[in-house]
């Protein structure tokens, strides 16, 4: 199988070996027709406003795809169509989301537990992420004022998440800034990677195979040849963040209008808000998560649309992924962000999982206790490394691999 595009960091060497798309309201698997998601944007220098404002509120999301589906079903279908990718057998098959969660699990999170289900066939362990049952029960037990605050917080999260989807649609080539493109499609690459361990370790590396959803591709490098795998250098990660309005402009606006934020209709009358484009940065936690998302694929660039509180994007900036740790250190040095520590945390978990997931076709629940961010913004620290990881066996009914897939992997 021919690869096309490898990005190398100190410990991970990812290579794109395939791609597929999901289309239609039921997100049906399509291994042949890859969705056209090339991005049409002027490389932002951080010094110019958008010529055409993007009002994300005007983009409808009735057909928004389910981004919470982290199962391996679609990847299994792709593997069955491309069996050569399993020779030799990788140590792990998983998703980019699992990789990101494991990388960031050493830092404070809203959820105390990270839960992963895993099963083994031969020498390969298959893993995917599931919601923490403990956290779901906690959410149900919230009452009174706390419940109202929690509901407002969840509503804000949903709104922010919808802005992300809407921004992706508006950035597609040929889309209208006011309405975006059809969001009823998603595009994935399949990545094969070698993760280096300590030289004294046996083995001295792990091989991984995982799927990763891709937000877009630089239009200059886009090709309609669906047989050609995308060059990793052309891939783009998209984010939205809140616009940082100039402090002087904020004070003047509040004095004139009696309110700090003007809505979208007011902006059409008064013009764009005053801000310094060079001072627009990703939020520190977004920087960290974006780095973790891009690291596993080798995506070199993050393009961020900076929006006001009413959902209007006024400014685009691009950031090199390799620059994010230094940017974060210079601008938000109170937030921990160490790529080396994140990589080491991932390796520790994989080495532990190898010792725990022993028996074929048994489903294990693997949990990671994370530092937890409390309501007063203090942090509840997890136990020592050796006690952070827990495992238990689940019933056969918990098996998440397709029967046909299991039989095929057994025979090979």
How would you describe what is shown here?
The protein is α+β, with helices and mostly antiparallel strands. Helix content is 30%, strand content 25%. It contains 11 helices and 17 strands. The strands form 3 sheets. It has a 9-stranded mixed β-sheet with strand order 2-1-8-9-5-7-6-14-17, with helices on both faces. A 6-stranded mixed β-sheet has the order 3-10-11-12-13-4. A hairpin with a 4-residue loop joins β12 and β13 (312-320). The longest helix is centred in the middle third of the chain and has 27 residues, at 144-170. The two termini are 18 Å apart. The model is unreliable at 1-9, 42-47, 139-147 and 249-270 (pLDDT under 50). Residues 14-245, 286-372 form the RAI1-like domain. Its EC number is 3.6.1.-. Pfam families: RAI1. Keywords: Hydrolase, Metal-binding, Nuclease, Nucleotide-binding, Nucleus, RNA-binding. InterPro entries: RAI1 (IPR013961), RAI1-like_fam (IPR039039).
Q: How does the major sheet shape up?
A: 9 strands, mixed
Q: What's the number of extended β-strand segments? A: 17
Low-confidence spans: 1-9, 42-47, 139-147, 249-270
Number of helices: 11
Large-scale geometry: globular
Question: Can you summarize this structure?
Answer:
By secondary structure, this protein is of the alpha+beta class. It has helices at 73-81, 96-104, 133-141, 144-170, 247-257, 264-270, 284-295, 324-331, 339-356, 385-388, 403-411, and strands at residues 12-23, 28-30, 38-39, 54-55, 92-95, 113-121, 124-130, 185-196, 205-213, 216-218, 235-242, 301-307, 312-320, 364-369, 372-373, 379-380, 389-393.
């Amino acid at each position: 199988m021919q690869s096309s595009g490898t990005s190398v960091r100190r410990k991970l060497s990812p290579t794109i070996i395939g791609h597929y798309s999901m289309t239609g309201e039921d997100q049906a698997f399509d291994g042949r027709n890859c969705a056209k998601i090339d991005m049409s944007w002027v490389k932002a220098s951080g010094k110019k406003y958008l010529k055409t404002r993007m009002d994300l509120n005007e983009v409808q999301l009735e057909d928004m795809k389910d981004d919470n589906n982290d199962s391996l079903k679609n990847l299994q279908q792709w593997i069955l169509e491309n069996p050569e990718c399993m020779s030799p057998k990788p140590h792990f098959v998983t998703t980019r989301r699992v990789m990101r969660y494991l990388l960031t699990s050493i830092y404070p999170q809203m959820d105390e537990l990270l839960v992963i289900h895993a099963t083994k066939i031969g020498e390969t362990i298959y893993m995917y992420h599931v919601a923490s049952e403990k956290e779901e029960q906690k959410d149900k037990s919230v009452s009174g004022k706390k419940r109202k605050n929690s509901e407002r917080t969840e509503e804000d999260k949903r709104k922010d998440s919808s802005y992300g989807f809407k921004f992706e649609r508006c950035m597609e080539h040929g889309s209208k800034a006011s309405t975006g493109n059809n969001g009823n499609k998603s595009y994935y690459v399949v990545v094969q990677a070698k993760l280096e361990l300590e030289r004294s370790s046996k083995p001295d590396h792990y091989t991984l195979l995982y799927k990763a959803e891709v937000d877009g591709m630089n239009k200059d490098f886009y090709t309609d040849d669906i047989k050609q795998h995308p060059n990793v250098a052309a891939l783009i990660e998209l984010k939205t963040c809140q616009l940082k309005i100039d402090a002087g402009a904020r004070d003047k606006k509040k004095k004139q209008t009696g309110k700090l934020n003007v809505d979208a209709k007011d902006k059409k009358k008064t013009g764009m808000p005053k801000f310094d484009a060079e001072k627009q940065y990703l939020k520190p936690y977004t920087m960290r998560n974006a780095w973790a998302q891009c690291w596993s694929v080798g995506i070199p660039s993050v393009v961020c649309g900076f929006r006001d509180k009413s959902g209007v994007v006024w400014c685009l900036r691009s950031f090199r992924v390799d620059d994010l740790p230094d940017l974060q250190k210079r601008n938000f040095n109170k937030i921990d962000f160490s790529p080396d520590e994140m990589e080491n945390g991932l390796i520790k978990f994989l080495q532990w999982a190898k010792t725990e997931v022993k028996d074929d076709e048994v489903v294990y629940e693997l949990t990671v206790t994370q530092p937890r961010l409390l309501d007063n913004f203090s942090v509840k620290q997890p136990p020592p490394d050796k006690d952070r990881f827990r495992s238990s066996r689940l019933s056969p009914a918990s098996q998440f691999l397709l029967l046909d897939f299991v039989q095929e992997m057994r025979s090979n």
